[in-house]
Amino acid sequence: MNAPDSLAREKFAQLLALTREPFPASTKVYESGVLHPDVRVPMRRIDLSNGEQVTVYDTSGPYTEPSAQIDVRMGLPSVRGDWIARRGDTEAYDGRARVALDDGQKGDAEDARLQALRAEAAALQRRPIRAKAGRNVSQMHYARQGIITPEMEYVAIRENGRREWMAQYLADAAREKRLAGNPLGAAIPRLITPEFVRDEVARGRAIIPANINHPEVEPMAIGRNFLVKINANIGNSAVTSSIEEEVEKLVWAIRWGADNVMDLSTGRNIHTTRDWIVRNSPVPIGTVPIYQALEKVGGVAEDLTWEIFRDTLIEQAEQGVDYFTIHAGLRLAHIHLTANRRTGIVSRGGSIMAKWCIAHHRESFLYEHFEDICGIMKAYDVSFSLGDGLRPGSASDANDEAQFAELHTLGELTQLAWKHDVQTMIEGPGHVPLHMIQANMTEQLKHCHEAPFYTLGPLTIDIAPGYDHIASAIGAAMIGWMGTAMLCYVTPKEHLGLPDREDVKQGIIAYKIAAHAADVAKGHPGSRARDDALSQARFDFRWMDQFNLSLDPDTARNFHDETLPKDSAKVAHFCSMCGPKFCSMKITQEVREFAAQGMAEKSAEFKQGGGDLYVPIKPVA
Amino acid sequence: MNAPDSLAREKFAQLLALTREPFPASTKVYESGVLHPDVRVPMRRIDLSNGEQVTVYDTSGPYTEPSAQIDVRMGLPSVRGDWIARRGDTEAYDGRARVALDDGQKGDAEDARLQALRAEAAALQRRPIRAKAGRNVSQMHYARQGIITPEMEYVAIRENGRREWMAQYLADAAREKRLAGNPLGAAIPRLITPEFVRDEVARGRAIIPANINHPEVEPMAIGRNFLVKINANIGNSAVTSSIEEEVEKLVWAIRWGADNVMDLSTGRNIHTTRDWIVRNSPVPIGTVPIYQALEKVGGVAEDLTWEIFRDTLIEQAEQGVDYFTIHAGLRLAHIHLTANRRTGIVSRGGSIMAKWCIAHHRESFLYEHFEDICGIMKAYDVSFSLGDGLRPGSASDANDEAQFAELHTLGELTQLAWKHDVQTMIEGPGHVPLHMIQANMTEQLKHCHEAPFYTLGPLTIDIAPGYDHIASAIGAAMIGWMGTAMLCYVTPKEHLGLPDREDVKQGIIAYKIAAHAADVAKGHPGSRARDDALSQARFDFRWMDQFNLSLDPDTARNFHDETLPKDSAKVAHFCSMCGPKFCSMKITQEVREFAAQGMAEKSAEFKQGGGDLYVPIKPVA
């Protein structure tokens, strides 16, 4: 390990320590299963200064549990290991032999650098498991057998939360009506039961991405009748400096609320860094295996073969990747439909496959071997994320024939996947103006049989580079409301460069906003409880509670302190907007006293008196 | 002038000079009137590296015209002076005598500081004009007489732009269909004619805020059938340091695209700084006169009187304020409806009036004197912005009885204002979850007779303090699409503190995104031309064109340069996302060549061959 390496390691170890700090006034709490008593679902409880508590969904994993002993060289403790073992349908085996090419190394020998990286966290190498011959270990398969797995109960508890708001919710029928939202066809029960989760997974309307080789994952569901989820993309550094750096990126993303993380690394050492990421990730990890396959053939798309791709799938499935983006819906016959587009094919995976199809003038091997792929997926419970290789790259190309032709093929493939009980979600665009978003959701629901939709944005306009997290959060909120189950984030650097740590946070917060706006609009039970608690704190001048209930307590507090830095201002009954002399919130208190003194009666009297006569509009001057 | 003053002046003079720099590759161009040859409408032409030009709407005024001689102590040149004079229906008069209290000074004597501030820009004092006795100088009045004013022709030209895109638009019927948008009831003609503007103003469906004492204004329209506009709020500094500082704030806001600016200053020296702002503003200036009236009575709401308020209206009308927010729809009988709200009354103006009504237990003097107010408005052509004093301050209070009761009263008042031919727009919320936004627009259209709607956001969730520009841009885009004519921005500091220069910019850009997303969705002709040009530049790797067409070219370029700083990267046929080895855009070029070689025929052949037989799905493994 040379000097820069050790400096970088130190820097990221410090960052990681910071990233592990619990949120202010927050405590990790756990709810236990009933069907499966060893299910223990973490949540974040926020304690308010008035004694109330608000418990929120928590994606941050053991990292924000102060008592957790975390060593990134050992990986996270297993959550699901016993559950998987109890099912008795898996077997450990030696696994595929790792080769230097997996890490982007030419020739057979690993260089010293790679050897050093591998030695750094040798304990992260695990012996893989797979389904026993003839068995299918997918959550969908269990669901269809009528089995409620621990994973399903976990998801049910997690979606419900502690529901401190429930008593008030039930007590106030009028309020409940306003909370009801407009689900636009979603069917969200007031209480998510384990049986409801099972049924949704069995129907294919939700997935629980959870590779049996990723026992560290805290199960979560992606589906229209659950909370809207978000995905953050991370990639390896040009020169990987340390395991701390790779893991810190992941921990940073889940701290701010990423429900899933896609590892889009390319280039050198990706196999080894993937081990680091998966072993240390409490959230499902997705990949685009064609990227690594392309690396293995030196970046020459036409040299790809089914055999190389298949080998890569098995490599990554053994490592524990939870879902694969596979662009199997891009068929040879679709390609010419893109010829007149303004921005052609902008999906990397899509363009790789288009190039392959053109070069060989034959049908995509992903399409031809789709059921072979299903065979691999169900042996590990890897979920499909069927890629939209022909998604529009500009407003001009939105909803065109190419895009929808591929979507229809994805619908066919969904049914094939379901024939194998393989969990499946569908990727969507991209760039879509506001008025064309509904058509995407309608087409997807119709042709893909309610398989969860997973969209990138969509961006509603093209003229906002530098702010595409905002341009796309608008579209994401809308399509989330309409039924999209997971939103892939866009950072401010989209179209311009590689996101840094701050960009990742900005992208995630923008997407937490979009997802929450959608949840509130759909009327997901309890989704408004946090808003109500925050607004109540605002009205009551409980400043610290207001900060602590925010999506980003640090920024909320820092912004407040820029104007009113003193601690006394945290309890002041005014704020920087109106200042102490005049405060609209204070006046409302007077309105309430006034109302208590019989305003309603006086108003009725006034109305009886004839209103207009009592306060006549003056004649025209 | 003491030392800190002169330092501050120097600092803001430098900032102002920077803010005056033209945007990259941009030239201010002018289109002339036909009906009124002295109409000369500025636009910003962006010259692309491929020889194409894209002309965009320009709110920045003479500040970005390098040849303009600007002296903030003299004010901007008059745009409308001759037009107003030619109409022959106005008269100059001495105006109301200014008193020290106008600037928040107690007693009769002005202190030395105020005298110094006034002396700084003595040339900005103008002799006011007003309508001759019995005349009405509102644009609505002229419109209803069938008169197309220069202001109306100006607006028509401005809304159309140069329409370089028109030939392609007309040539490509299929593309035009996709451009058509979904106007949701708006009726936007392909070409905005002066007669169309006149008709919209006559119907009350659009306003042109343009006080006859603000001849510097570049006329613009606010209406559902025009481009969606945005408003930025500015306020005076706690201690006003210099005229440069006040004017720089304004110039900064219009540089980034504010169509209107509201001056929400309170406290000392506001009369004098308002002179500075109005005389140097090419965009309409709005105010909330009740704020200043409240200052005049020492901040004690119950001491407000109609006489003090009326005097303040005349004071500000003589200075040239273009629209007044007046909370005349908040009636005594509405107040008790807020008693059970989560966050009561959050509008400052609303809470002032509620307090007054409660203290006196009588109807609001604004409501009682509404037609007196109309008499003032039409003598100067000040437009109403009828305030929503009962707007919800949280999702929990959205669309409640209090809010809609006030809205219905605003509808009654609109008809009264129209009886006097006074231009009127209606303010709207606030905090509204996504699924409740449509009801706001529907109620407003129905009860306010299509008078332009002007909303603050709305914020779609409450848990995003620090990011409320994003939480509200989502709601703003949606309500803009549905028919709101102007969107009042929200900065990241909303609910937390006072926005600084960067916050103002962030708020404006978020709202330019929302407004543009709405324009594209509504199918405003030409609104998509800039998106298409930018996406084309992106696809062609014309990096500089991509930056220059952006809403914020500086940020786009800086973000790009963080990853690929070299000048050569600005012409590189790859970007930092995929890198040079593999590029999806390059592959699309190959797709096009492939398509040209007869892909379509081959595809047809393939389809004829029976598709599934030709590339059979393998049997289940």
UniProtKB/TrEMBL annotation, chains A, B:
Molecular function in Gene Ontology: phosphomethylpyrimidine synthase activity
Top-level division of the source organism's lineage: Bacteria
Keywords from the UniProt entry: 4Fe-4S, Iron, Iron-sulfur, Lyase, Metal-binding, S-adenosyl-L-methionine, Thiamine biosynthesis, Zinc
The keyword 4Fe-4S appears for this protein: yes
Cofactor: how and how many bound: Binds 1 [4Fe-4S] cluster per subunit. The cluster is coordinated with 3 cysteines and an exchangeable S-adenosyl-L-methionine.
Required co-factors: [4Fe-4S] cluster
Reaction equations catalysed: 5-amino-1-(5-phospho-beta-D-ribosyl)imidazole + S-adenosyl-L-methionine = 4-amino-2-methyl-5-(phosphooxymethyl)pyrimidine + CO + 5'-deoxyadenosine + formate + L-methionine + 3 H(+)
Enzyme Commission number(s) from the entry: 4.1.99.17
Residue ranges constituting the ThiC-associated domain according to the UniProt record: 22-91
Residues reported in the UniProt entry to bind Zn(2+): H431, H495
Subunit-level organization: Homodimer.
PANTHER family tied to this protein: PHOSPHOMETHYLPYRIMIDINE SYNTHASE, CHLOROPLASTIC, THIAMINE BIOSYNTHESIS PROTEIN THIC
Family per similarity comment: Belongs to the ThiC family.
Physiological role: Catalyzes the synthesis of the hydroxymethylpyrimidine phosphate (HMP-P) moiety of thiamine from aminoimidazole ribotide (AIR) in a radical S-adenosyl-L-methionine (SAM)-dependent reaction.
Name of the protein in its database record: Phosphomethylpyrimidine synthase
